[in-house]
Amino acid sequence: MIGIAYTQGPRREILAPVDTRALLSLATVAETGSFSRAASALGFTQSAVSQHVAGLERTAGTPLLTRRPTVAPTPAGREFLRHARQILAHEQAARAAVARVTGRDEDTPVSMAVTPGTEHLVPVAGLLAAVVVDDAAGAAAALSSGRADVAVVDGIAAPGDPLPGSGPDLVVRVVTEAPIGVLLPASHPLAGRDAIDLTTLTDARWLDTTGTSCSTSDLASAARLRLRRGTTYTGTSTDAVTSLVRAGHGLHAAPATGYAPPAGLAIVPLRAPRLVHRTEVRVHAPARAAVLALADAVGAAS
């Protein structure tokens, strides 16, 4: 139960506590677009879900969802949901932390979250309950909430800078780290260069990717540069990326060492800015023996 506070004049008043089940009902209705589907997904009655949402709307003093013609968040509802999801995530993280400290999860199978570029590091060790493939933020959220015991993430950063989702309560082990290069067709005029500055390629066309290893979004963010986007690719397949680059649809980032470019492609290392592609395995501290064993297996698989 969480108290919702608001200010009226010089006084600060505390409204009735909000049950986190009501926040969960609101979030699920918003995600499914239906009170009945939300009730089915949560195991609540539809009447209970309706009462939860109505109670939150009374607390907020404004409608949070439209009912007709479709069920969807209002502008106020979108803002309310942003905070509600953070509260629910913190509650999940708290429950997971208690389970780790008290040893209540000692006998449960180990689960793992991996980013799209790291699936090959999932060891066949008979320890996994599930493998969640997501982006770095999603893998970090799975680890924080307790949906995963181990997270393997990769991304682009300056040497020594942390990847997104790092935290003081995590044990982070670097699995691989390689300088970043530019993946381009072998026939490209720059393919024979020893190195290149990224600033000279801001007007070149780059594949518009977000979910791939070494995605253009990660590269632009780490380099603090705006890159001209070409063809959009929303998948995670490395083979699809190399095919698109080979066909001239745009450039893409790739590790400059430890990665052999496929036929018809070349990699030119970046001279500036200095960036690396890093793969990390993360676990919470403290972690049970089975979790640490899996983290060690990931390191060995590299």
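(the above was protein one; protein two follows)
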Amino acid sequence: MSDTDWELFLRDLALCLSTYQDRGPAVVWPERAHTVLPSLDGGYGGVVPGTGWRPVPLGAGARRLAVDLGRLMGYPVQAYERLLAAGAALPLGRAGADVLLFPLSGGVRCRVEARGAANHQGGGLELRLRAGEMVFVPARHSCSLSEAWTPCRLLLLMLHATP
């Protein structure tokens, strides 16, 4: 992966965040994602399905992404990862911060709902999220993941922008 690939990938993430952070959820297909993704999926080990999100180890590609994106946006970004077993569901609820969520491998059904949406008819966003695609979930929204056909390694970037 070249520095240019990394910079284009970061630029697309920053553009999405600067456009949608105060508006609502968004799907992002960052440029050069398939070049950058292999550097993020470091096989962190020790992740057991159903045990929760794990902080990404220092020095991992995903940690670099969090640091570089945080520097570009001007606020701290933390990286967490999790393995979602095939057929498992994962209700994320509200994280208390804006998040970028994306599969590093595999795919999963993702549903994002605004605060107060009482049912699936409430105008939420529902999509099949695959490796190389990301969804931005604002703090005031909830998110749930389901229907992973194979184990899906997920990366979550928690954005600590000041209100």
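Reviewer note on protein two: The mean pLDDT is 82.
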